[in-house]
């Protein structure tokens, strides 16, 4: 009798599982930034200073930023993500003077910078914990 061969799925390797999580976290980072930028561009006030109307969105975006900061970005690369934060803030300030489009683009860049803030702070905390507490 011939041996029975079946097409059973093979268990995923650890590298494949990590790649799937990186793909998901990358899109979570991009979508969170776009949502923060669009919400800040469409509101009359900033979403950070608005009343309780947008507080659940701000809380969700900060939570997503912290999760992405912990699991997606490398804490040794804190300088590059900090530069992104500074560039988006500088772009928001410099583009606000453009005629007609500056009023929409500046709040978008500022909203994206608001989203990058918790990510940068999370990476800084992780970096210093790794360097000064866990390295001993």
Number of helices: 4
Strand content: under 5%
Helix percentage range: over 70%
Distance linking N and C termini: 62 Å
Major sheet details: none
* Helix and strand composition category: mainly alpha
Which term fits the overall shape?
A: globular
Topology, please?
Elements: H1 14-42, H2 55-71, H3 78-95, H4 102-133
Helix pairs in contact: 1-2, 1-4, 2-4, 3-4
Structure description:
The mean pLDDT is 82. The chain is built from four helices and no strands. With 136 residues, it is an all-alpha fold.
Structure described in brief:
The protein has 136 residues and is an all-alpha fold. Helices cover 71% and strands 0% of the residues.
Core attributes:
mainly alpha; 0% strand; 4 helices; 136 residues
């Amino acid at each position: 009798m011939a041996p029975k061969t079946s097409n059973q799925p093979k268990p995923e390797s650890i590298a494949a599982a990590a790649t799937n999580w990186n793909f998901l976290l990358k899109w979570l980072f991009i979508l969170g930034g776009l949502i923060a930028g669009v919400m800040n561009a469409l509101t009359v006030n900033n979403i950070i200073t608005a009343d309780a109307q947008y507080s659940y969105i701000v809380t969700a975006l900060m939570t997503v930023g912290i999760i992405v900061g912990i699991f997606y970005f490398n804490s040794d690369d804190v300088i590059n993500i900090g530069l992104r934060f500074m560039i988006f803030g500088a772009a928001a300030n410099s583009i606000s003077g453009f005629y007609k489009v500056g009023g929409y683009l500046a709040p978008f860049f500022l909203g994206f910078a608001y989203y990058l803030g918790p990510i940068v702070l999370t990476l800084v905390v992780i970096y210093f914990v790794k360097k000064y507490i866990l390295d001993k």
